[in-house]
């Protein structure tokens, strides 16, 4: 287990560094996990046995033991009966609201403390600076350290991981209690430091963690909570709750979480999200009322724009300009963020140094940012004293800051005066704020602490909108409207539009508009906001991926990219252009030797089961682990020992009675009963944890094989676990075969035909036709969360498409390179005999096949290639 | 064609009557359509030939003909280049906004005219009554008549049909120009009559029609518009546009259309909906500004509730009560609506009478309703004078109508005084209004004119909310808040909550909340509204289907019902419990006789193609039409004539040269070239219309067969078209065979082996495993829009599940009858050998199969049944 441990630690290093790269091979990882799980299970079983015996002792002492059992059963029934969706959702909403509120409270206290320190040291500017800078550095360092030690997976936003998980890939370590603790504590500290970091993304993750833990907790009471597809549905609802209780924006939360995490959304999950998010937002706001922060339930950043004439039609071009500029800005932000990560990764010396001094990078970044925002220093030009919340409130202010460019008319209410500098006018302050915050936010979000980018971007957008609004107000001091009445321009409205547009551009979502309505409590600017958000999205989507997709690419998470909009060539690329023709397969009547060769030849996770190498009729698919188990059984030590015993017995018999014809059958019989004990025993103990990387629809990859089973031939297949070599136990007698004998015996065994009994076969793997378009393939893959699909032609296996090929094809077809694109007229040539929409194949090939069946031949990959053209 | 015509008329009768029952067998319908299409195509071809010849003439005269071709090509290129999504969406939005605005204008004029007539005849109450009653009766009768004559499909809401279409079933006649005209004109008249009818549902249909027609129009320029999956995506966007430009509510429109029409929603279509709906809503509101109706863009039913303290926390129970009561009310409305339809249908005498006098029912209903709302009569107690719009505006009014129950303090502004009756107080007026409008709306929506139920329900909900609000205001005259400040209760806020809750309950949607925000321009009541809507949904969904699902059931549209929430038994039912084991199949090496028998045996649309009756390995699926075409070719007149000619030739040859061994091969060869001409010729003419009922993913079912091809054996397969019998043309010479000779020849032909060349086979029909749960099956069916799926066990076909079985199983498992439910412990028993989540089958059966292969046997359905238990 020592080697295992270092492995894991190396993995952790890999993952904490800025954006931990997701480089582990799925297969390797799964195998390691499976090995660990086996150990754990054994451990657990021994514990449970111990507790059971303890219980038995108690029962013996027991007063009214039966009664207690009865009560327990009743309780169980009750819990399982009311253990329905809505109870789960209410619990989730409640917990998340409490978490959100408590966290907000802590963050507020932290920020207050910094202000208090800063204020108390006004006499000495150096001490003041020290306090201003040290406080966030300490908090961020603690956050980074804590996150690193407890659960390095908690760093970053969490939305990319949720997107991957909802796509169907279980990233187990992202949904543990440790991660929950690390995320909550780390996030509180990170936000308490006053850095330009957001709460939204991590909150989506926290809510999902909460849902996963709650599910696990509820599953103790049994019932429906063990169903995996249900758990995935609940995770989707949890994402909505995360956004909902972060901003008290239930509708926006539901929509944002859908846009950000899903590719296809089941409308029947819709109400779940609404229900939980509404409940959560409600409790979140009620807590504020009870805490006397508010008089009643209102929006978080309430605005008070006039209702009767929110804006003039002629102001719309300005809103459109905000939208387009935000689109470019959003794309730039994503690019900048990625650039920083890649720059630090590429610089090997920096990288090595930072790897060693893990907390140096966060501390340095924090130091830089907090130095620049030091209010008596450069911070005075960019309202550095204001926290994120305060600056947002001031930016959404009702009043005009600068009428006709004269800053003197400024209203000194609340914190707005921070924006006014004696030497500079408001415009310059805003420009400085926008520019500085822009790169600061992009930089700060690369720190390996739990943090999101939504809120910083939101504030920058608001500032940009405010800038445009103030300019408009200065340009048209009496408003634009021509018909008598004077309606002044409301720069706060522009700020709202800008906030929605920029955050929409960075995240590639339209629902930021709804979040903005719920945050401000006003919907009067609906059309400008919608127009700006859509324009920003159009621009940003054509330039850069969303921040979440960008992180997915940086982290190399196993995710299928979206099809861009309007790429018509996707309709022209066919599956046959991108599929892998060299499919790993086993035949129904193959020998163990062929099986062994197939396993040795590659690292495929699943093998196709075909009728025969000639017909290639696809019968199903088998997982690698199943085949390995088959081979292990055949060559395993147990079977060898049995063989020895049988041989000894028969020799004895032969000595005694000189008759032993039936032995072979008998051995066979015994083996087949032995086999059934290999299948995992169904106990009522809590379910084993799932292997790390596994599609939920697949059956568990627990390999009923351990290294001590492996003989010579198997040595190549399984990586040896040196730590466990010594602890062999020998229940079946002495293994007195020599190496040569073993090899001989194994050779003999390998020539037997494979018995596929008790081997789990997926009899209906997903099949595509070679004419299926890339567009449709993408749809099917993302709809069903597939990992790979076989390409068949009238029952005959001709290729396989996996996520990898698909990803390559999509990315290639966007950039028009990296993929062998079908010649442009190929589909026209084909469609001479069949209409272009059909994906049917002619029966020709089947006939060819049937005629060729008489001539046995090797399956040659280029063979079917030629035929399909 | 005479018979065909009456058939169609009968169908139309069937469809116009209240809720036309959708009884046509899919197969029959498709065949009729195909026959009609063939005729149409022939007609079109002759026209196109004529125009071509005309063009040729012009070219001969042509001055600079080449130049013109060049320009045309450039034009084409330009159009196809810019023929991208966003242009289509902008066009769609623009058209729909214009249509919506023009319709609103016409409706307003109609309602004005009625008021003017009513006002002008104030001297004579009888004449006044006559005018009040006649006007709507005439309009509704005209609307019903017009709809009936032009396109009976236009009657009703249209949302149920759109739901079905987006599910994947093409109801062709619902997306034609005729339907568009009928819907727009009929809807304008129906709404102009002042009946309690809505605009929303039909508008969804109108927008979809618009999108379909626009697609068809754009496809003239070629390009991407011919792609069917793209068109479906566009229809989804169109639904959003429909709601969006009806209420100027883009966000609510998108969400409502998703909830109402989709089961699974592709997030990548999201922006399409937002884009188009925003553009449409924008143009719609801009038109109002340009028309000087409004000063700037604002909400349709703008409210002016106070922002700083919209409601007190202690008012929440009242809002919850509104929600729950609305839930019951909504369920009652759906039930009442269905009851009325079913009552009229059941009463055979009434039904017959109404069938004859088609316009009587609408006229009678209108008469009844308008008599009861006659303002000097009973209408005075229920504000009968107000139009729907006016009553909604008054209901959402800011002020309190009745403080402490004293109606005297009433503010006489706008139309609010209509609610005040000298003898009655406001509460009684409101109660009467609610009760009367409730059944009136349920009755009115059964009239066969284009109409929706959303708006009437919305108004009733607002009235109910107002009632509760006024009661609360009377109960707490000084507001509830305890801390010094007096905040009066705002009954208008209650009205908003009630409107959202009741309409949400009737349609089973949560997004009515968003629509309400956008309609009123205020979001301050977000939490009460969300809570009420969710409660209303919870209650209504547990009692009744939504109004749209109810209509789907009444009309018997081919739609898959939703899984209810929290029905855990869905996870326990397996596909093997519901599948049909007697699958219609053809084998690869079958004879034409077997093919004929298979075709005769049932009405299956598709047949499975298996390797052989023994192995039952599924190779693909073939459509009925393809098999029919095969049979037609083999037994067709053309082939017979050829045979005759060949025979004559060979006889001649034999006479001449006494040598004719090679003939048989030659005939065969000639036939196979002949066959290729059977495949539909690929011309550049506009694409033929799709057959009436066809899944879009399937290839066209055009049967290259006409009645005169059919011999004796085919007579049974194709229904004879007596009208076309006489016009046979005989290009191949005389058909001088006697009936006996033909029969003999056919018998001979039937024994030949089927040549599946040139027959279109779907090589990858969707396959399920017998262990797949009902829940998963439902998901897959609705995700992929499947019609049927084969159930296989390791490549071997063992059953088939179609939409019908699934529907039965879902409805059965809800009511716990009608479906053979698997014994409760069956899955436990199975899971002894495999974990309960896996759906893998053991290889046993395959081994059984292989051993049994040596003994040829009939496929016996109960055989595999026994084995699987």
Helices and strands, with pairings:
The structure is a homodimer of 869-residue chains.
Chain A: H1 2-16, H2 26-61, H3 65-82, H4 85-120, H5 125-150, H6 159-167, E1 170-171, H7 177-192, H8 200-218, H9 228-247, H10 250-261, E2 264-266, H11 270-290, H12 316-346, H13 348-356, H14 360-372, H15 388-395, H16 426-444, H17 454-475, H18 491-507, H19 512-520, H20 526-543, H21 547-555, H22 575-578, E3 585-587, H23 592-601, E4 606-610, E5 618-623, H24 624-635, H25 637-657, H26 663-676, E6 693-694, H27 712-715, H28 739-750, E7 761-762, E8 767-768, H29 774-784, E9 788-793, E10 796-802, H30 803-815, H31 826-830, H32 844-852, H33 861-867
Parallel strand pairs in A: 3-4, 8-9
Antiparallel strand pairs in A: 1-6, 4-5, 5-7, 9-10
Helix pairs in contact in A: 4-5, 4-7, 4-8, 4-9, 4-11, 5-7, 5-14, 6-21, 7-8, 8-9, 9-10, 9-11, 10-11, 10-19, 12-16, 12-17, 12-18, 12-20, 12-21, 15-17, 16-17, 17-18, 18-19, 18-20, 23-24, 24-25, 29-30
Written description of the protein model:
Two copies of one chain form a homodimer. Chain A is mainly α. Chain A is 58% helix and 4% strand. The first copy, chain A, has 33 helices and ten strands. Chain A has a four-stranded mixed β-sheet. In chain A, a hairpin with a 2-residue loop joins strand 9 and strand 10 (796-802). The first copy, chain A, is elongated. The two termini of chain A are 53 Å apart. Residues 1-27, 404-412, 659-733 and 814-869 of chain A have low confidence and may be disordered. Strand 2 of chain A pairs antiparallel with strand 2 of chain B.
